[in-house]
Amino acid sequence: MDIDGQVLSFFSPMPAALPLYQELERRILAAVPGAVRKVQKTQIAFSSRRLFACASLMRVRKAKDLPSPYLAVTFGLPYRLDSPRVSVAVEPYPGRWTHHVAVGDAAEIDGELVGWLQEAAAFSAAKR
Questions:
Q1: Model confidence over 64-94: pLDDT tens digits?
Q2: How far, in Å, CA of 19 to CA of 49, rounded?
Q3: What angle do the packed helices 18-31 and 111-126 form, to 10 degrees?
Q4: In the sheet where 44-47 sits, what is the strand order?
Q5: What is the H or E stretch that residue 89 is in?
Q6: Cβ pair 39, 10 in contact under 8 A
Q7: What's the CA gap between 46 and 16, in Å, rounded?
Q8: In this structure, how many other beta carbons lie within 10 angstroms of the beta carbon of residue 56?
């Protein structure tokens, strides 16, 4: 996968996290037909009809509890996930839960996480 200058620049504060991102992007684009990415200042957003997931270097746990390197993966679902993998879950609107998962190894970008991301894409597409 070719990585463009925007992505390289995004990961300049933590270049060791780039391979984690590359695996995440590869898995998302394979699992969610029509998904596109947009590099922004603080996150890389994935959308199909609407935004459904983001990758960032945001701290989702205390620094001492984060793997090094790490990638924060954020996505929304209509319910709160009950999983030890979820670092933070908040309900900004009734029936809309935002989840943050810290990924420290490419093996953590597995079927479970990709399944949540597919579900998040379907949930965002169904919003009015």
A1: 778 889 999 999 999 999 999 999 999 999 9
A2: 27
A3: 60
A4: 36-39, 44-47, 51-56, 71-77, 96-103, 86-93
A5: strand 86-93
A6: yes
A7: 21
A8: 19
Residue at 4: amino acid letter: D
Strand partners, 90: 98
Domain spans of the chain? 5-126
Residue 29: phi and psi, rounded to 5, are: -65, -30
Amino acid at residue number 112: E
Q: Are 98 and 21 in contact (CB under 8 A)?
A: no
Q: pLDDT at residue 128 above 70? A: no
Using the predicted structure, report yes or no on whether residue 1 has a pLDDT greater than 60: no
Q: Position of tokens 């992007």?
A: 25
DSSP string, 58-102: ---S-GGGS-SS-EEEEEEESS----TTEEEEEEEETTEEEEEEE
For 45-110, where are the alpha helices, taking DSSP H only? Answer: none
Q: Are 103 and 73 in contact (CB under 8 A)?
A: yes
Q: Which of 85, 84, 88 is nearest to 97 (CA)?
A: 88
As given in the structure block, the two tokens for residue 61 are: 């746990």
Report angle CA 97, 36, 77 to the nearest 5 degrees.
10
